[in-house]
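dumping the sequnces here before i forget
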Amino acid sequence: MSKRFSCKQETLTASLRGHIWIEGSEGTFLGYGRIALLERIREYGSITKAAKSLEMPYRKAWFLIDSMNRQVSKPYVVTSAGGRKGGGTWITSEGEKAIAVFWKIHEKFQKFLKRQGNAVSSISK
Amino acid sequence: MSKRFSCKQETLTASLRGHIWIEGSEGTFLGYGRIALLERIREYGSITKAAKSLEMPYRKAWFLIDSMNRQVSKPYVVTSAGGRKGGGTWITSEGEKAIAVFWKIHEKFQKFLKRQGNAVSSISK
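..and the predicted 3d for all of it:
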């Protein structure tokens, strides 16, 4: 306890940060990672490619999608198996809506963080 | 890609969650963990006891306090070395202000999450 803490005579440049997620019956239901995955699936039409683009193991991507789908009455991601091209994967309209709502809340959250940033600056003096 | 996703016919009970922190020049400056540590130091007047009560190694507690102190012009935690009782540790008024401001922002954040919860429920149908 004899060591003194250093304390520089500098002004604190502080900013308020945060993140949000939606919790469901199984824990996390939607967060930034899952939204990114949904958007990549929309882009590539493939879980394999979507997962690869996020440097995420396929098994993890599959687990995340299955977790989302299991928590809603209509799935967010659907796949068609088989066929000459090996099937396809796409985002349903419910999934699209979820993405849109999430980003809308995120946008409001960013505004909230910016507004509250004034309070933060009051503690740095 | 042949494995189908399961999808239960259940209503999603979703809630919006999140957390916030204040970032300074060194990365995290204040977050829930650091606030808890400050409050325990206030309670126990000792970093050792505060750390123990949070099941945190003493070195980590010391690092966190030093990190806070280094980022502000007036320290949040001060210690007096030596003396028959081995010195003491307490929170300065600047530290107290930081704790109060953080909880105030947290409270507003909880209200924000509650308000936005309505938007969340719209994606679960």
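The mean pLDDT of chain B is 87.
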